[in-house]
Amino acid sequence: MAQAGAFGARLGRFLHLKDAPPSLVTRSLRGVELAVTETRDDNPIPGLSGALTPEDAFLVSLKLHDYPDCELWERGKCIMKRDVRAGATYLYDLKCDPRYVIDKPFHSLFFHLPRSALDGIAEQSGAPRIGDLACELGVGHDDTVVRHIGASFLEGLRRPSEANQLFIDHMMLALTAHVAQTYGGLRRNTELARGGLAPWQVKRACERLEADLGGTLSLQQIAAEFDLSVSHFSRAFRISTGLPPHQWLLRQRVKAARQLMTVRDLPLAEIAVAAGFANQSHFTRVFTSVIGVSPGVWRREMQGAPESET
């Protein structure tokens, strides 16, 4: 599900990339487009980066490559030089026209968070809207949550056919909430976080997910059926089932695949697609992580006969 995306194209121009970098996009908060984009250039065009159109939005950037002696600009002026560290998280206020001098290889993950998305998180959390994020130019944060979410997104960007929409929605929601709390001072209303879904809601939500093993439905679409916010639905679903929706869906795919594997002459590649996986490789990775053995081994054990991994 990776795509160029409007913001990915803007980042490409900003960094003078030959091609627009791939992005994963969600509209799970107020219909606003949130995007995560991987940018990399091992042989960049030297010079000052382009300009991003000023807007009431923020960039959260996880650096994947050291960038020593980085010349940082804001509002058309050179502000400082700082060493940018791989593994650190940096925040940029797009109202301030952040730019930098490109003079060495770079590799970063960028999350684009419009103000309206942060307002949506506050509203869904029953909390007041936050002010500006703590964006201090050149200051990197040792943020394990952003690193974890970033690593998950990197896998999705590199295997886009395996990144279902529920996964993208869930991870971007988690990232936005974390940023709002950690760098914006958001305080959630704990009263909203206690209960799960009603039994009929659990049943209906699970039926909707089972009917869409390919994962094309968004969290926003499912939550809207119960007149719930995305964050409320996602949290309540996890309380009720023990898993977030995208993980629950993966378990259902494995369940469907196990049922299909009782049909002895069905190839694993065909089973993979029928159960909602992107391909046989995706099927094997997920099945092995959940069950502990590969699909071929599991089927041999169930049927008590030798079989090839096809």
TrEMBL record:
<feature type="domain" description="HTH araC/xylS-type">
    <location>
        <begin position="203"/>
        <end position="301"/>
    </location>
</feature>
<protein>
    <submittedName>
        <fullName>AraC family transcriptional regulator</fullName>
    </submittedName>
</protein>
<dbReference type="InterPro" id="IPR018062">
    <property type="entry name" value="HTH_AraC-typ_CS"/>
</dbReference>
<keyword id="KW-0805">Transcription regulation</keyword>
<dbReference type="InterPro" id="IPR050204">
    <property type="entry name" value="AraC_XylS_family_regulators"/>
</dbReference>
<keyword id="KW-0238">DNA-binding</keyword>
<dbReference type="InterPro" id="IPR009057">
    <property type="entry name" value="Homeodomain-like_sf"/>
</dbReference>
<dbReference type="InterPro" id="IPR020449">
    <property type="entry name" value="Tscrpt_reg_AraC-type_HTH"/>
</dbReference>
<dbReference type="InterPro" id="IPR018060">
    <property type="entry name" value="HTH_AraC"/>
</dbReference>
<dbReference type="Pfam" id="PF12833">
    <property type="entry name" value="HTH_18"/>
</dbReference>
<dbReference type="GO" id="GO:0003700">
    <property type="term" value="F:DNA-binding transcription factor activity"/>
</dbReference>
<keyword id="KW-0804">Transcription</keyword>
<dbReference type="GO" id="GO:0043565">
    <property type="term" value="F:sequence-specific DNA binding"/>
</dbReference>
